[in-house]
Amino acid sequence: MRGLALLVLAGWIGEYVADVVLGTWTVKYDLPLQLTDAVSLVTILALWTRRQLLVELTYFWSLTASLQAILTPDLARSFPSVYYFTYFIYHVGAVVAACLLVFGCRLYPRPAAFWRVFAITLAYAALAGAADVITGGNYMYLSAKPAHNSLLNLMGAWPVYIATTAGLALAMLFVLQLLTDWLRLHDAGHITAGPDVPMRTGLRASFPSAAAHTRPGRRS
Other CB atoms closer than 10 Å to residue 192's CB: what's the count? Predict the structure, then answer.
């Protein structure tokens, strides 16, 4: 787990190091205020500590925002650019981490956790929006759509796509919540009804379950 955390950290921080080395870092584009920055940070901390809230944020954010960024990357730099590798390292790493923590370790989100995650996402978006006004940037794509094709292109014009995206995000979080709620009940049924109660009880004791705009073409 911690090895994966270090890999995500290397990809995430490596991108900022590349900006500094190449002399392209600017306040307008490169503050850590894209949602992917929040995802990367909480992923690292969740893998390292397995704190419940951090696991929940990693799960919901990675299987929505990070997965979408992998499928429709806003990536102008192609292989073998350093940004190509850093981009996919921290995005794919976050998705893998979410699956390991929740489906592997059975650290299921608490009931109704998706509301908490949605509220935190809105608060983070407000912070990014304030930065957009101050710097003239486009953090979290609140000022304009990505330069390349993405899911946001189907969400209407500005600012309609912001509200549309928020509604879709809430629906996706709700579906992910239903999935883990079902898995928790399924696990509970096996524990109480199966002949291997001691083994499963021990397993759950070890792994207790709980009842993006920068410069176009890099981070999304």
Answer: 10
Provide the 8-state DSSP code for 81. -
Whole-number Å distance between alpha carbons of 217 and 6: 24
Are the beta carbons of 37 and 91 closer than 8 angstroms?
Answer: no
What's the CA gap between 177 and 82, in Å, rounded? 35
- The one-letter amino acid at 72: T
- The answer to whether residue 108 scores a pLDDT higher than 80 is yes
Name the one residue in this structure whose structure tokens are 């270090």.
Answer: 6
Distance CA 93, CA 63 (A): 11
Kindly give, in sequence order, each residue whose CB lies less than 8 Å from that of residue 67, ignoring residues fewer than 6 positions away: 95
Q: Provide the sign of the torsion angle of the four alpha carbons 192, 194, 196, 200, taken in this order.
A: negative
CA within 13 Å, CB half, 83: 20
Report how far residue 135's alpha carbon sits from residue 26's, in angstroms, rounded to the nearest whole number: 10
Tens digits of residue pLDDT in 137-146: 999 999 998 8
Q: Give the mean pLDDT of 93-111.
A: 97
CA 92 remoteness from chain centre: 10
Q: What's at 56, amino acid-wise?
A: E
Report the distance separating Cα 54 and Cα 63, nearest Å.
14
Q: SS3 helix, strand, coil % of the chain, rounded to 5?
A: 70, 0, 30
Any idea which residue has 């796509």 for tokens?
A: 161
Q: C-alpha 105: how far from its chain's center?
A: 18
